[in-house]
Every structure is written in structure tokens, then in C-alpha cells.
Specification:
With about 400 residues, the protein is mainly alpha-helical. The chain is built from 16 helices and 4 strands. It is globular, with a radius of gyration of 21 Å. About 50% of the residues are buried.
């Protein structure tokens, strides 16, 4: 059965996984504003309150390869169901927490479940679609996270004013909805896509791509370098440094930060689908080169921005860069997989998580020790290895190699 959307004829499962990603992102956005406030209600300081958020990300990173091994051993659907369940149950229990250690432990468990969910969902998506639709599928899938991420915080802020515990229960409910959607619509999905009448599920049954095999492929190393650079620059440095740059260095109202990130979100939303289209029709390298170069330009503008207008323009360009830079590397990983590749996908996602953790720390140190300009200037340097590897990248779409 095919799902007809703005793009050709994509498998129905793309829409299902997008609905799942939207439900998860809405719930996560709802609970994020409440977490530090709830933690502070137990009488802890700001550092301890921040640790409740950090431990979730840390456990995602620390258990990534374990989650990938589970996917290789038990399959995507089972691991996805268990992962969503772990996050849902731990979130509901977090809403009932009576102490700070309880909250910290339950958020740690949630990070493990989140790792299991994201790896299995990514693996399922990459294996269901053929390579000439993989970029577009990634675009649509990520649009679910983007839309949910914008919607959730607004709801969460309102709920927090009503009850500090309510967002956790809403998060658990949204995850339950996501799990129900997956259970109903993915239970009979076939991990296949035909190329010349050959069914991939039949051809690759019982096979998997090991991490050792993937690390010998230059295309996979390119995807890893891009994932790390994306996490460092777009997910990490932009989120941590731009708000401080606007309010402390430029001495402007925090409302301008909101304007900048809104422009970035709009630009990203408008270019997300064209990014996938270009990746599928013109090839992975052109789409990736455009994304990397746009990211470089955006951070160069931030480095030398004399006024808020140029900052807003640069933020818009980061949104565009994120669309092209974020969809294509995942498609490349899907291109190189033969059968299951849970650990291959896990390391790819861990590279982004590691970059998003390390980037803000290094950028913050540079800003404190030297200047904001020095902190922003490091971003293009981080992007150079990804640029060099991408320039050497050959076509990875197997359907276009004949």
C-alpha cells in the first residue's frame, strides 16, 4: 500500500513513523519546560536541576550501541515498542516522584528508552523505503519532530502554570499514543522495497551490516563526520551560544532570540522537503555540499555580525543548512546497509549527540576566555573534515549505480 503525499508515492509506513515522531516530539516539548522547575521544587540548586535534563541526553549517548545491538538481535518493531514503553512508564512515574533522586533515576531510564526508540525507528525507516525515496522519507520523518518540537513547548508552558506534574503525564500519554500508532500500523509492515523486481526482504533475509564493516566504508565515515559536525554546530553551538550573544554581547532583548530561532525554524521547515528531493534526484553529494557550505556561511556571518539584522539572516541560513545537512547523511547510512544495521545507525546518532554535548562546552569556554567571535569562528573549522570527505564522496544510491 502506498501513501500519496507531496512526494511521489512513498510507503505508508513513512506517514506512520512521521505520526509517531510527531507524538513523541510534542510530548518531549511539553515536558521540557517543566523539568527544571519540578527539580527545583525538591530544594536543589540550578546545577542539579540542569542535571535532570543532562542525564537524559547522557544515557541516550551511553546506551546507543546497546540499543543498536538489541535491534540487530530482536528486530526494529520489538525494540521500538519496548523503548516507547520504557519512556512512557518512566515519565508517568517521574510525575509521581517524591524526591530528587527518584526524578533523576527515572529520567535516566527514560534516556535509555529514548535511545532504543530512536535507533529502531530510524532503522525501520531506512529499511522500508528504496534508496531513490530515502532522502524524501527522511525529510518527512524529520518534519514530524520539527512540528512537534514547535508545538510542544507552548502547551508545556501552559500546563506548568496549572500543575508542575501534569506535563509528565501528558508526555506519557503522547508516548502511549505513539506506541499505539506503531502497534496498529507497523505490525504487518514488510521490510522491503523493490529494485528491478527483487525484494530486499528476501534478498537480505538473515543478513546484517556490522559496525566493523561500516567503518571500512568511506561513505559511512563521511556520514559520521557530518553527523558530528551537525550536532556541534546546529544542534549544540547555535542553541547555546546565540541567545547569550544576542542578550549579553549585543545588549538586546531576549525577544530577539525568539525571532532568530523562529526564522530558523521557518526556513528549515520550508527547505526540508526540497532537501530530500534534491538528495534523491540529484544525488547525496550535491545536497550535502549545499548544506555544509550554507552552514559555513551562516557561522561566518555570526562571527562578524555587526547588527541584529545580519544575525537574523544567519539564523535563517542555519535553518536551511540543517535541512540539507540533517537529512542526507542519514540517507547515506541507509544506502550502505544490507539487512539490519542497528549498531551502525546507533553510532551515527551517537556522533550527533556527542557533538551536541561537546560543542556548547568548547564554544562556551572560548567565549569566556576570548570572545564570542572566537567561539563562532571554530564552527567552520569543525565543518572542514565533513566538507573534505563529502567532496570525495561517490554516489551511494544503489539504484543509480547501474
Amino acid at each position: 500500500m502506498r501513501w500519496r503525499g507531496n512526494f511521489d508515492q512513498l510507503p505508508r509506513e513513512v506517514a506512520v513513523l512521521t505520526a509517531v515522531s510527531f507524538s513523541v516530539a510534542v510530548g518531549y516539548g511539553v515536558v521540557v519546560p517543566a523539568i527544571p522547575v519540578f527539580a527545583r521544587s525538591f530544594g536543589v540548586g540550578n546545577t542539579a536541576a540542569g542535571a535532570v535534563i543532562s542525564t537524559f541526553a547522557f544515557m541516550r549517548l551511553a546506551t546507543g550501541l546497546f540499543g543498536g545491538r538489541l535491534v540487530d538481535r530482536f528486530g526494529e518493531r520489538l525494540v521500538l515498542a519496548v523503548g516507547v514503553s520504557v519512556v512512557a512508564i518512566s515519565s508517568a512515574l517521574a510525575g509521581l516522584a517524591q524526591s530528587y533522586p527518584e526524578l533523576l533515576l527515572l529520567r535516566s531510564l527514560g534516556g535509555i528508552g529514548s535511545s532504543m526508540f530512536t535507533i529502531s525507528a530510524a532503522s525501520l525507516l531506512l529499511r522500508i523505503v528504496p534508496d531513490d525515496q530515502r532522502g524524501r522519507s527522511q525529510s518527512i520523518y524529520q518534519s514530524g519532530f520539527l512540528t512537534g518540537g514547535i508545538t510542544g513547548p507552548a502547551i508545556g508552558g501552559l500546563l506548568t502554570t496549572i500543575s508542575i506534574r501534569a506535563p509528565f503525564f501528558v508526555y506519557a500519554l503522547s508516548l502511549a499514543i505513539a506506541g499505539l500508532i506503531a502497534a496498529i500500523f507497523l505490525s504487518h509492515s514488510r521490510l522491503s522495497a523493490t529494485h528491478g523486481g527483487v525484494d530486499i526482504a528476501e534478498r537480505e533475509q538473515g543478513t546484517h551490516t556490522s559496525l566493523r564493516e561500516a567503518l571500512k566504508m568511506e561513505s559511512y565515515l563521511t556520514a559520521l563526520a557530518c553527523s558530528f559536525a551537525l550536532g556541534w554546530t546546529i544542534f549544540g553551538m547555535r542553541a547555546s551560544l546565540v541567545p547569550l550573544f544576542i542578550t549579553e554581547h549585543m545588549k538586546l532583548s531576549p525577544s530577539w532570540t525568539g525571532v532568530g530561532f523562529t526564522i530558523a525554524s521557518i526556513a528549515g521547515a520550508l527547505t526540508l522537503l526540497p532537501a530530500g528531493q534534491l538528495s534523491d534526484t540529484r544525488g547525496r553529494r550535491p545536497a550535502l555540499l549545499f548544506g555544509i557550505l550554507t552552514a559555513m556561511i551562516s557561522f561566518m556571518l555570526l562571527t562578524w555580525s555587526p547588527n541584529i539584522t545580519l544575525v537574523i539572516v544567519a539564523m535563517g541560513l542555519t535553518g536551511v543548512a540543517g535541512s540539507f545537512f540533517g537529512t542526507t547523511p542519514a540517507a547515506i547510512v541507509g544506502d550502505i546497509l544490507h539487512g539490519r544495521g542497528g549498531q551502525v545507525i546507533a553510532l551515527f546518532q551517537m556522533a550527533s549527540d556527542f557533538g551536541s554535548i561537546l560543542g556548547p562546552l568548547v564554544a562556551g569556554w572560548l567565549a569566556d576566555r576570548y570572545s564570542y567571535q572566537a567561539a563562532f569562528a571554530i564552527a567552520p573549522l569543525i565543518l572542514i573534515p565533513a566538507l573534505i570527505l563529502t567532496m570525495r564522496l561517490g554516489e551511494t544510491r544503489r539504484s543509480h549505480l547501474a
